[in-house]
Amino acid sequence: MLTEKNKMRLLEEDELFPSTPGKVKIERAHTINRQFHRCFASTSTTFLWALFLIALTASYLSFQSFVSTSSRFLSSSAWDRQVRTSASPRRPHGLSVLVTGAAGFVGSHCSLALHKRGDGVVGLDNFNSYYDPSLKRARRDLLSRNSILLIDGDLNDHRLLSKLFSLAHFTHVLHLAAQAGVRYAIENPASYVHSNIAGLVSLLEAVKSADPQPAVVWASSSSVYGLNDKSPFSESDRTDRPASLYAATKKAGEEITHTYNHIYGLSITGLRFFTVYGPMGRPDMAYFSFTKAILAGKPITIYRGKDGVDLARDFTYIDDIVRGCLASLDTAGKSTGSGGKKSGPAPYRIFNLGNTSPVTVPTLVSILEKHLKVKAKKKIVEMPGNGDVPFTHANISLAMAELRYKPSTNLEAGLKKFVKWYISYYGRSSRGGRKTNL
Ligand SMILES: O=C(O)[C@H]1O[C@H](OP(=O)(O)OP(=O)(O)OC[C@H]2O[C@@H](n3ccc(=O)[nH]c3=O)[C@H](O)[C@@H]2O)[C@H](O)[C@@H](O)[C@@H]1O
After folding, report:
1. Atom 10 in ligand 1: which residue has the minimum CA distance?
2. Does 252 reside within a domain?
3. What are phi and psi of 79, to 5 degrees?
4. pLDDT per residue as tens digits for the range 151-182
């Protein structure tokens, strides 16, 4: 017999866990159900507590790491001195440049080139794990051996940025930090917004408030041309039809920098890089991942466009890009703002930095086969609809006229240098592990 109290409890439990309407309930089933419900209720409570504790621990840890990162940077006079020394030019009228993304491919090459000619350089990089961070650490070690300070920090860390601009009077910011890669945007769209939109705005806010305001040279991308089929691509061509979220964030960057130019008088130069390759490059890019796979005897996937047309890229060698970046810094006019107001118009420039001679992906593979002396195992598939464009081709007349930009390395010669570096760094039988220092 059920007591009134027990009946009430059962009723309450029934309300909590309603049974399927119309089902006959027998007492034994009900008892089992009740035990199950109790057990479930206690499991779910435990689960919720566990979640709560995990969240609490995670926020504590991230707070601790924020505090320790910030205090490590923000309260040490030794660190202040390091920033000032690294930012100081060693030649008369030299530049003082904050290079974001300095542990990256283009960032590390530019930092070294600037340092070599006597400019002051401070690097900033968040060492994210989009590709193997050990290569980024190796680049940092190389910079460090050249007395270039590279700070592990994120563009979105406002305190860190304002501290940097208060410590050093940077004449220029070379902004190369970004979430790169066209196809990865399908997997992780938020990382593109974090770095290429929020990070960019955070940086521009810091630059706007700096006194004096530096000039900004930054990496846009050939991908902004998107579905443009007028060839070669000129800076005045349509860029309102991006084919990937990556391209859309780079295009947004061009508009965002324009706003800061218009309102605050920041001197802006946007560089549309065309598929940059070379030694110490990005492992996610086709020429790099193909090399690794070919040496390992693994198959490579070659995408092919509609109607069996080969895809083509205006592959551009890193040294040419570095020269274009340095020429952009050297010719950037001054920012005109101070205290949040501009005192006159400042330059806003956009340049293509390409090679002007597109090469198909199968040709890229055959050049690699030749330099590696190994035949590739090729799998040809139709280009997936995940952001790729069929071809790119730069018109570089504007950069030639204003930057004296003149690319001098063709794909054959550039890949030879890349392969030489790859084998010296990883070895021929590598599985991605490094053999020597950079
Ligand atoms: O120029 C640019 O703006 C962009 O250049 C590259 O993007 P992408 O040209 O797609 O370079 P890769 O990823 O190296 O691809 C090169 C070509 O190889 C093809 N590919 C790639 C990977 C693969 O497994 N198979 C394959 O056939 C691609 O479809 C593409 O046609 C960079 O990854 C971007 O960060 C940069 O902004």
Report:
1. 182
2. yes
3. -65, -40
4. 999 999 999 999 999 999 999 999 999 999 99
CA 370 to ligand 1 center in whole angstroms: 21
Residue 124 C-alpha to ligand 1 middle, in angstroms? Answer: 25
Q: What is the ipTM of this complex?
A: 0.99
CA–CA distance, 167 with 161 (Å, rounded to integer): 10
Classify residue 199 by its DSSP letter. I
**How many folded domains does the chain comprise?**
1
Residue where the block lists tokens 């190994």: 374
| pTM summary value | 0.85
Query: How confident is the model over 102-138, as pLDDT tens digits?
Result: 999 999 999 999 999 999 999 999 999 999 999 999 9
pLDDT (0 to 100) of residue 339: 83
Domain of residue 158, residue span: 77-273+318-353+393-407
- β-strand pairing of 312-313 with 359-360: antiparallel
In angstroms, the CA 144 to CA 105 distance is 16
Cα distances (angstroms) measured from residue 344 to each of 210, 261, 353: 17, 10, 28
Cα separation of 97 and 92, whole Å? 15
Catalytic residues: 246
